[in-house]
Amino acid sequence: MNFEGSIYSFPSYIKHFIAVFVVVLSIGYFTGLMFVGQSNSHHPEGMAENYLGNEDQDSVEVMKFKKGEREMLSILHTHVLSISFIFFIMGGLISFTSLSNKWKAFLMIEPFLSIIMTFGGIYLLWKGIVWMKWIVMISGTLMTAVFLISVISVLIQLYKRK
Q1: Is residue 2 part of a domain?
Q2: What's the pLDDT at 40?
Q3: Whole-structure pTM over 0.85, yes or no?
Q4: Which is nearest to 66 in space by CA: 22, 130, 9?
Q5: Domain-embedded: residue 4
Q6: What average pLDDT does the chain have?
Q7: pLDDT of residue 71
Q8: Which range among 35-49, 96-110, 132-146 shows the weakest confidence by mean pLDDT?
Q9: Which helix (H) or strand (E) element contains residue 2?
C-alpha cells in the first residue's frame, strides 16, 4: 500500500483535526521542555544534580537529594511510554507526507533510538555513570529537533497544494 503524499488528499476536516492535534501536542511537548529548564536539567551539571542531588556541596541555592529508586522507575516508565506514543503518532503522520523515503525513515525511527539513549542515559547517570549526562544532552536535543522537523513537515504538507 502506497501512502506517498496521501496527506494532500485528506478531506479538510481531517486536515484541521490533524493540525489542531499536532499544535496541542507541540504545546504539551514544549511545556515539558520548559519544566526541564525550570529544574536546571537543560545543562549537564544541572541534570546530574537533579538526579544525583547536591547535598554534598558546600554552597547551594536549593538543596536537592538523590532520587530514590521508585521515583526513578516512575519517571522513566511514564516518560518512555508517553514519548513513545508521541513519536508513534508523529511517525504515522510522517508516513503520509511526500518526504523522501530516507527522510521518512529517519524521522520515524530516530526518535525511538533517542528515547532509549536519553532515558537509558538518565538511568545510568542516576546509577553513577556521570559522563552519561553528555549522551542524554545530545540524544535529548536530537529527539527535540526531530520532533520539531516532523511537526513543521506535517503542518506544511497539510495545507500545501500538491
Answers
A1: no
A2: 67
A3: yes
A4: 130
A5: no
A6: 91
A7: 94
A8: 35-49
A9: none
Q: How many domains does the structure of the chain reveal?
A: 1
How far apart CA 143 and CA 57 sit, in angstroms, is 32
55, 65 Cβ separation under 8 angstroms: yes
Whether the CB-CB separation of 26 and 151 falls below 8 Å is answered with: yes
Q: Residue 127 has what pLDDT? A: 94
CB-CB contact of 136 with 47 (8 Å): yes
Cβ-contact 157, 90 below 8 angstroms: no
80, with CB counted inside 10 A (0-12, 13-18, 19+), is: middle
Interatomic CA distance for residues 27 and 20, integer angstroms: 11
Report the largest interatomic distance among the alpha carbons of the chain, rounded to a whole angstrom: 63
Instruction: Please tell me the distance from the alpha carbon of residue 22 to that of residue 152, in angstroms, as a whole number.
Output: 9
Rounded to whole angstroms, the Cα distance separating 83 from 75 reads 12
Q: Is residue 3 part of a domain?
A: no
Instruction: Specify if 150 maps to a domain.
Output: yes
**Domain hosting residue 104, numbered range:** 10-56+65-159
CA–CA separation, 118 vs 87, rounded Å?
14
Indicate the Cα dihedral angle 73, 75, 77, 80, nearest 10°: -140
